[in-house]
Design a protein that fits this description.
Elements (H helix, E strand, L loop, with lengths): L2 H19 L5 H9 L5 H11 L9 H15 L8
Helix pairs in contact: 1-2, 1-4, 3-4
């Protein structure tokens, strides 16, 4: 997958996290994650939580699992890390 395609996929993922869970990141945080997304669902989720001003180690564990599941599904798509 090209870097442009990966960036689009991350942008779509961030849109999904906003729509489904209310994690609507500020522009700077979105740009950072789109340019250099963390590897793995847990790391990506932690980055999203921090960008929203939350501590990723506290909060609702069920919500965290759901957020990670959405992220994992997107990150596991073929070609994601091939660029």
């Amino acid at each position: 997958m090209s870097p442009v395609d990966r960036r689009r996929r991350v942008a779509y993922l961030l849109d999904e996290l906003c729509a489904q869970f209310g994690f609507c990141l500020p522009a700077e945080a979105r740009e950072r994650l789109e340019a250099d997304p963390p590897a793995g669902a847990d790391a990506f989720a932690a980055a999203v939580y921090r960008a929203e001003g939350f501590d990723p180690t506290t909060g609702d564990p069920a919500l965290h699992r759901r957020v990670c599941a959405v992220i994992a599904q997107s990150l596991s798509a073929p070609g994601y890390r091939d660029a």
